[in-house]
Amino acid sequence: DLSGKLKKLVVKNRREYENLDIEGEYLWRWRKESTFKGKLWKANTWLSFDYSLKDKTFEGSFGGLELDSRLLNIKRNISSVVGGSIKANFEKKYLNLQAHTPLLRVDQHILNNCTLKLDLDYSHTSKGSFDFLALQPFYLSIGGSFSKGGVVGEVALLDYPLQVESLSSKLSYKGSLYIKNGRLFTEGDGRLLNLTYRDMGLGPASYRLKLDGDSYSLDLKGEAFSLSGGGSLEEKSFSGRLSFMGMDLSYKDLLVKSLNGH
After folding, report:
1. In whole angstroms, what is the distance from residue 47 CA to residue 97 CA?
2. pLDDT digit string, tens, across residues 145-182
3. To bridge 88 with a disulfide, which of 95, 138, 184, 242 should be the other Cys (CB 3.0-4.6 Å)?
4. What CA–CA distance (Å, rounded) separates 170 from 211?
């Protein structure tokens, strides 16, 4: 058995943990077992693990781990405290990670009850698969595979509270996902519920979206109107064709019946 303190632990030159408590035990049996079991902790952050020197396998569980943009080496503003489990085979160069958190901050959004499953094979070039799920305040599922060529997968979104200037709705979407060299591509179909523009109820609508990096195209159809066009996300621009098919509009003291035209 052993116990003591670890003066400093550095994770990829992005996060330092100082004065960690450590305890463990070494188990050895002739030609059968050579295992080190241990625990590292400081305050609410901890890691318990079993490491087999014979098989070069690692199994552990962890909790209270603080994640942020610096540790993940990404530009988006992300923060959370996570727990989970990890399995690795250093000889076969394989890793499995399962993590969960009650709260995840991503830019201006707060996601609750989130889980992540990751399988990584780094025996040659890194490749693997992933599944991310958030249950509240809206449903978000992203899953797929990744390799040197990029990320290929699917995304599903349900009841996202959309608010763009004077336009609001509950948005749902399901489509393909492809990321290469930091460029995002997606194409799929969705639905807008309780679509409202400046206090005018426009009813439900369905749409098809195609996003290629910064450029997008949109085909939207409601009960008595349709919108087709495209633009740039960076420039916040859109140009297209809006058509009315016998639409009734009511806004403040204005009432329009059976509007038709483009």
Report:
1. 14
2. 998 878 999 999 999 999 888 889 999 999 999 998 88
3. 95
4. 20
Q: Which amino acid is at 242?
A: L
Nearest of 138, 129, 130 to residue 104 by alpha carbon: 138
The set of residues, in sequence order, having a beta carbon less than 8 Å from that of 64 and lying 6+ positions away, is 43, 44, 45, 46, 81, 83
Q: Are the beta carbons of 23 and 3 closer than 8 angstroms?
A: yes
Longest dimension (CA), the chain: 90
What gap in Å lies between CA 55 and CA 14, rounded to an integer?
Answer: 30
pTM: 0.84
Residue among 217, 176, 169, 168 nearest 191 (CA): 169
Which pair of structure tokens corresponds to residue 26? 């070494």
Count Cβ atoms below 10 Å from residue 153 Cβ, excluding itself: 19
What gap in Å lies between CA 107 and CA 140, rounded to an integer?
A: 15
